Each structure stands twice: as C-alpha cells, then as structure tokens.
Amino acid sequence: MKPYELVLFDFDGTLYDSEAHFDTYIDLIGTHLNDAQAKQLRKLYERTRAGEGVLRIGEWYDPESQVSKPADATHPSNRKYYLGDYWWLIHTLGHRLGVTDEQLIDSFFRTRDYMMTHTDEIHLVVGLKKWLQTVAKRQKPIAILATNSPEPDSVAILQQLGVYPYFTEMIYNARKPTHMPQILEHVSTTYQVPPNRMLCVGDHYYNDIDPALQFGADTLFINRHRVSHPHNSTYEVHTSEALMEYLTDILAT
What are the contacts of 93-102 at 24+ separation with CB within 8 A? Predict the structure, then answer.
C-alpha cells in the first residue's frame, strides 16, 4: 500500500465486528408492537439474516412494494432507504410493521445506551488497538474517526474499548453521506494532507466509500455483506482479518 499520511475511520461495523446489540435493537423495537408483531419482527429478522427475506443489505427499500431492490447504475432517488447495514435493515423491518419513525429513533438511542453499559458484548477488531497505539506513538499516519453515532455513547464505548486516546480527532453526528464532502475537506485542510494521501475505511458504501472516491481519496471497503450493487473501491476486504492485513501494510511503508 501507499505510505498514507491520514486514515479516516468509520466506527460502527468498522472498528468492531460484533453484532449482539442488534438483538437488543430488535427487542426494543418490539416494545412498540404487540406480542404477535414483536415475534413476527424477530422472525423476519432471522429470515433476512438467512437470506430468505424480502430485504437485503446492499439494496434499496421501495416503500410501495415494501421489498428491497438492487440499485441501478445511478442512485435511485425515488426509493427511501439504502440498506447499508443491519441498523437500517432492522429499522426498515420495524417500519414495515407500522413502527413510527419517532419510535424507531427512540429504540435506536435506547440501544446505544445499552451498548454503553454492555461493552463486554462489543469486540474490537483483533489487532486494531495495537495498530492505533503504534500509529499514535509514531504520529503517522494521522488517525481520524468520523461516525454518524451520537457523541456520549460513542465516547463511552471507545473509552471502554481502550482506543479513545489514539485518535487525533473524532467527529460525531457526522451526518454521512450528506456532510462527508465537508468532513473530507476539513481533515485534508486541517492536517495539510492531499486527498491522494488519505485512506478512508468503512463498511457502508454510500456513507464512507463513494464520497471519498469522488473527493479523490483512496478507500478500503469492508464489504462483509458482499453487496451486489455496482461499487468501486481502491481496496476491498470481506473480513476483519483481511482489514488488519491492509492496515499492517501501511505501517511497513
């Protein structure tokens, strides 16, 4: 890999690959449903994870047909949700069963509160803490975090995972992808790093990868769900182990 001067990380699904909190999210959405609907939500989620449902990660949710569909070559503007990860997939399952946006947001924040106090269920990518420690000691490359998640729970989780001190800057409530161009411009200008010396790492294609490519930065797409839509990235991995192989290569340059 190139000797990158700055690496911009996503948080959820990037720094950790555990998924136990999604069960909590399902349960909390279920509190806004009757017992039969809550059981149906759980069943739909399990079927979807098994690849047997009507929704798939990497597709767009069509509210009229209430199923997800593959994207065209261009972004389909008439569809409501891009199912880039399990957060959005579960959100959409709840929406299909009549849970309101306000109730879904409430369930999301309650899940984040749960994660703050159950960090034993969140497993940092193996080897990443040592990598961040080495980077902080060398002061190269600069490690930046940009997440759509709120600050209080993100800080608590990062502290419990033991990696909070090793990021030069952390951007919360990032509102990706809308604000991703401004974030990229900010870090490039602030740290005087040209786009071609920046690497953006994330698991959500339209939040993390596509905007970075348009900015001129290199990208590392963690494509755990093997999305089927047309996509491009400088590097692509399917596992956390492969992610660490690439990151380790950066230290060797």
Answer: 93/41, 93/44, 93/45, 93/48, 93/55, 94/29, 94/32, 94/41, 96/44, 96/66, 97/33, 97/37, 97/40, 97/41, 97/44, 98/33, 98/37, 99/29, 99/32, 99/33, 100/32
Residues 6 or more apart in contact with residue 77 via CB below 8 angstroms: none
Q: How many Cα atoms are found within 13 Å in the side-chain-facing hemisphere of 48?
A: 27
Residues 168-187: tens digit of each pLDDT:
999 999 999 999 999 999 99
State if pTM tops 0.70: yes
Within the chain, all domains assigned CATH 3.40.50.1000 are found at 6-18+122-252
Is it true that domain 6-18+122-252 has CATH number 3.40.50.1010?
Answer: no
Give 63-78 pLDDT, tens digit per residue. 878 888 876 645 555 5
> Half-sphere exposure (CA, 13 Å, Cβ side) for 106?
11
